[in-house]
Amino acid sequence: MHLRVLVLLLSMMVSSLNSISADEPDARPRTRDLGIAPGVFKPGKSNAITDVAGVKVGQVTLIDGKDIRTGVTAILPHEGNLFQQKTPAAVFIGNAFGKLAGSTQVEELGNLETPIILTNTLSVGTAVEAVVKWSLTQPGNENVRSVNALVGETNDGGLNDIRGQHVRGPHVVQAIEAAQSGIVEEGCVGAGTGCIAFGWKGGIGTSSRTLPQRYGGYTVGVLVQANFGGVLQVDGLPVGKVLGKHTFAETPPVSPPAPLKPGDGSCMIVVATDAPLDPRNLKRLAARALFGLARTGSSYTNGSGDFAIAFSTNPDLRVAYGEEKIQTQPTLPNDAVSPLFQAALETTEEAVYNALLKATPMQGRDGRKVEALPLEPLRALIEKREQSLAE
Q1: Is 299 assigned a catalytic role?
Q2: Alpha carbons 206 and 226: distance in angstroms, whole number
Q3: Annotated catalytic residue 266
Q4: d(CA 14, CA 62)
Q5: Which Gene3D superfamilies match (predicted)?
Q6: Catalytic site residue 304?
Q7: Handedness of CA 24, 27, 32, 36 (dihedral sign)
Q8: Quick check: 71 and 58 in contact, CB under 8 A?
Q9: DSSP letter string over 201-233?
Q10: Is the distance from CB of 78 to CB of 133 less than 8 angstroms?
Q11: Residue 258 main-chain phi, psi, to 5 deg
Q12: Residue 73 φ/ψ region, left for φ over 0, alpha for ψ in the -120 to 50 degree band, beta for the rest
């Protein structure tokens, strides 16, 4: 038993080192470095989901040999005991060709009681088991008899040996315990390691918006696991069409051998806000995040599982485990939520761009290589538009 644990820990260490040395994502820009600023609201300090106070993100990247390209991303809604202090939450489904374990209870009860875990399709069961075990060991949960783990996925089988189910329970726990605030690593990391989007290398992306005080000063943050198809648009620029690389192009967007089916993949979107929203309006907020995918050129194809999970970190709205008293905490009225909806659209759009821009080329299963979104053609399109507007 001790030998098996040691081997697994060494494997995790090697994977982390490989993920660092594989490419240099820091050399690639984020969206705003290119002069693109989607929407009208300003981003938060880190322009990340962690700009919502209390939210933390942890990631474990598994890159090993020629065909292991996967990982885990964990999002923690607050720093306390998530089971004992549940957060209001909701789920919106754009296309249900996917797995979001635990979503039915979130829909029924309107709250979240564990970290949100993102991974690959065939590792959902492993992640659920790991989250349940981790939750049961937390101080104060000694008498807990039921845990609703929320685990989402995308299929990274194009680059990853997904059938090998290389994500193990300790990887999930490591991601949870590594969660931190501040800057979130993007691109080929965590659950985004093996992702492909619009025929280019996809992955993890994030963004945030802080509303003006006249709208409450609330923050909305989004994290995406971008692994979907369509015809890429960047800030309205027809990138996929101009470059002839998209889901419906005559030439497959991803190199042989064994081309992928058009549109295979998914997109998981996690939306956090500190605004006092009840589950009904959180579901409406989650819907706007999914609508934001359309701005990037998503086709919401048959094989794409498109899910959005939204939660509020507002401490006054947390539900204590076993609480039976009448809850009287104030929530935002319907007439006050439109600015939050706009923020969700903007952050989702920019998070997808960040996932594409920070991702680096990757070769994986069966020798398939996926290129990163080329920067020079994109810069040329941006410059051409600027010149046109200046005339």
Answers
A1: no
A2: 10
A3: yes
A4: 9
A5: L-amino peptidase D-ALA esterase/amidase (3.60.70.12)
A6: yes
A7: negative
A8: no
A9: E-EEEEEEEE--GGGT--EEEEEEEEE--B---
A10: no
A11: 50, 70
A12: beta
DSSP assignment of 102-136: THHHHHHH-EE-S-EEEEEGGGHHHHHHHHHHHHH
Residue with structure tokens 């989004």?
Answer: 222
Looking up tokens 């600023």, which residue turns up? 37
Distance CA 199, CA 350 (A): 18
The domains of the chain, with CATH numbers, are: 36-319+336-385 (3.60.70.12)
Count of Cβ atoms closer than 10 Å to residue 75 Cβ: 29
Structural element, H or E, at residue 18? helix 2-21
Q: Which residues contact 308 (CB under 8 A, 6 or more apart)?
A: 91, 92, 93, 94, 269, 270, 271, 286, 287, 289, 290
The full 3-state SS of 98-111, as one line of letters, equals CCEECHHHHHHHCE
pLDDT tens, residue order, the chain (391 aa) = 443 444 344 444 444 434 333 456 678 999 999 999 999 999 999 999 999 999 999 999 999 999 999 999 999 999 999 999 999 999 999 999 999 999 999 999 999 999 999 999 999 999 999 999 999 999 999 999 999 999 999 999 999 999 999 999 999 999 999 999 999 999 999 999 999 999 999 999 999 999 999 999 999 999 999 999 999 999 999 999 999 999 888 776 666 555 555 446 799 999 999 999 999 999 999 999 999 999 999 999 998 999 999 999 999 999 999 877 767 789 999 999 999 999 999 999 999 999 999 999 999 999 999 999 999 999 999 999 998 888 7
* The model's pTM: 0.92
| Number of other CB atoms surrounding residue 39 within 10 Å | 18
Instruction: Work out the burial of residue 320: count CB atoms within 10 Å of its CB; fewer than 13 is exposed, 13-18 middle, 19 or more buried.
Output: exposed
Question: Which candidate in 51, 123, 306, 312 is catalytic?
Answer: 306
Write down the catalytic residue from 266, 298, 299, 312. Answer: 266
Place of tokens 């990887």: 171
